[in-house]
Description:
Blueprint: E1 4-8, H1 13-27, E2 34-38, E3 54-57, H2 73-92, E4 96-99, H3 101-107, E5 113-115, E6 120-129, H4 131-135, E7 145-152, E8 155-158, E9 164-168, E10 176-179, E11 183-186, H5 194-203, H6 215-224, H7 231-241
Parallel strand pairs: 1-2, 1-3, 3-4, 4-11
Antiparallel strand pairs: 5-8, 6-7, 6-9, 9-10, 10-11
Helix pairs in contact: 1-5, 5-6
Amino acid sequence: MKPFLFLGTRAEDDAADDEYAAVLRGTGLDEARLARVRLERDELGPVDLDAWSGFILGGGPFNVSDPIVQKSVEQLRAEADLARLAGQVVAADAPFLGACYGIGVLGSTGGGVVDRTYGEPIGAVEVTLTDEGRADPLLAALPDAFDVFLGHKEAVRELPAGAVRLASSTTCPVQAFRIGDNVYATQFHPELDVESLALRIQTYRDHGYFPPEQAQGLIDMARRAEVSEPVKILAAFADRYAR
């Protein structure tokens, strides 16, 4: 079987390794079947789409809507690599699933607009599938409405041309969308469980997502939440596109 490729952008080793481990668990893949590139550290280089079953992009502190003067060399390099890959996968309709930062990367293609209009604080939020979402094969195992973990500064305000909205919430109109038949993005984190979210809250407590003194309260909130459905998206992606 051709492997999948996981792309990360987290500079903090604990959070980066935990995210990769969570995606491994969610997809049911092992490290031999899910290769990994850390884009905040390494160049992606040329990508042969035919060498991979598909691509998964994780989240992280980069935002496409950050003022360019505030972007580090590493962020600019990662953005260029991802823009090139996004162009390839959209043109070829190759299997791709981007979470959080992935919705910024894909959402800014094809005339889409990503900005700070619909940012959401860290928390558990109810997401509702659209009619197109209920009919989508990647989301078929999900109920019409389910809770997710998320926290983001930017979001899609206008979808790219031809994109189909798959899910929404009361505070963010685009929680998931699809381009073509095989290119997906979610605003929420399908890989996150309570312990992984607690780790990220501690890791990013000084990154402007929330006042640092609220960290423990957010962790307590996460422990009270019941978030069980989103991880099914990862399993469905791996099952559908393994080749």
